[in-house]
UniProtKB/TrEMBL annotation:
EC number(s) given by UniProt: 2.4.99.12
InterPro entries per the UniProt record, alphabetical: Glycos_transf_N, Glycos_transf_N_sf, Kdotransferase
Protein name (Swiss-Prot/TrEMBL): 3-deoxy-D-manno-octulosonic acid transferase
Keywords (A to Z) from UniProt: Cell membrane, Lipopolysaccharide biosynthesis, Membrane, Transferase
GO molecular function: Kdo transferase activity
Catalytic activity reported: lipid IVA (E. coli) + CMP-3-deoxy-beta-D-manno-octulosonate = alpha-Kdo-(2->6)-lipid IVA (E. coli) + CMP + H(+)
Superkingdom to which the source organism belongs: Bacteria
Organism this protein belongs to: Pseudaestuariivita atlantica
Amino acid sequence: MLAYRALLTLAWPGFAILFAIRALRGQETWRDWAERLGFAGNGVPGGLWVHGASNGELASARPILAALTTRHPDLPLCITCNTLTARDMVDGWALPRTTARLAPLDTRWAALDARAHLTLESELWPNRIRRHPTIALGARLTARTARGWSRIPGLAPAVFPRLRGVIPQDAASATRFADLGVPAADIAAPVQLKSLYLPPDRDLPPDLAALPYARTWLAASTHAGEEDTVLDAHLARLSEDPDTVLILAPRHPARADEVAALIAARGLAAHRRSTGATPPGTRLLLADTMGEMDLFYRASHATFIGGTLTDRGGHTPFEPAAHGSAILHGPDTANFTDAFAALGPDAAIPVTDAASLAAGLARLSDPSAATEQAARASQALAATASADAVLTFLETRLGLET
C-alpha cells in the first residue's frame, strides 16, 4: 500500500500538468481540472459516493441508483466518472439529491467525504476503498487484472479484505475476489449489471430518424483491425443494395482519423458525426462522438458488436437487444460468455470475417427476419438478476433503513 501511495504521489504533478494543458487547449475547463484533482468540494457528507468509469457502466446502474433515491429520500448521491460525456449524462437524468462530477485522482487528500462508496465493475481504487465502507457492484476481475494486483507488494492484502461487499459480474470474478482476500460471506451471487440496462428516454434526432431504418446497420465499439472487416462487408452490401447505410462507431473516438483513412482508402465517402447533423443521402456515418451510442442503436435495424473479432472479449449485447437491434458478433465473447451463450445462433448471428458479416447482414435485410431475431435476443437476455435482490444487499451492507 505504501508503494502504491508513493507512486501516485510522484505521478500527481504530471497529472496536474496534463489536466492543465487540456484546460488551456479548451478540451476541458478549469472546473474539470479542479474536479479531477479533488479541489471541487468535499462530496456528500452522510451520503453515498457512486463511481463508474463512463457512460456504459453508469447507464447500466441507473435503475439501481434511481431506486435508491426513491427508497431513501434523505440519502444524497454524488456520482463520479472519468469522462465529460458521462458527467453530462448523469446531469441529464435529473435524479433528486444527486450531483455529478469528474472523479478525483485516488490520492488520500482528494477522496470525497461520504458515508459509503459504491463502485461499479472494474473501478477498484485502493485509497477510496481504504477510506470508505465500499461495495463493488457488477464487479469484474479478469485473470490479467488479478495478477496485476500482486505486482505492487502488499497492495491486494491491504485492499480486498476491506471491501464491505462484492456483487460480482460472473462466477470467475467471484472466485478471483475470494482468492485476493474478500471473505466468502461478503460475496453475493453474480449479477450482470448490464442486464438491468434501461434505454434512455430521449428523442431520436431528426437527422438520425431520417436514415432508412431497415437499411441502416451499426458497427458498435470497434477496435483496430475490425474496421477493415466492417468496411469490406459494407462494400459487399452496397453492391447488393446501394442504399445501405453504415454507422461506424469506434470504441475510442480518438481513432477517428485512423478510421477515416481506412474509409478513404476504399473510395468511400463518410460524414463525421462530430461535424454536425447527418446530411440526406449519407451512406457512411463515422460516429466520432461520445454519449450517443443509444441513439445509434435505435437508428439501426442490425448491430455488429465490436471487440468480438479481436482479443478484447467483446462488448455488451444487452444494449442493442434493449433497443430492438438484431445482433451479429465475432467469436471472442469472453467478457459476456453467459450472455452470448444464452443468445446462441437463433438470437444472434455469429461471423468470422467480412464475407460472413455481409452474409449475415443480407439475411437481416428482410425486415421481418431482423425484427424476429431482435425479439428472440431480447427474450434470451431478459434480466435474470433481480434489482430488488441487489438493492437489499446494498441496503443491508450499507446500513440503510427501508
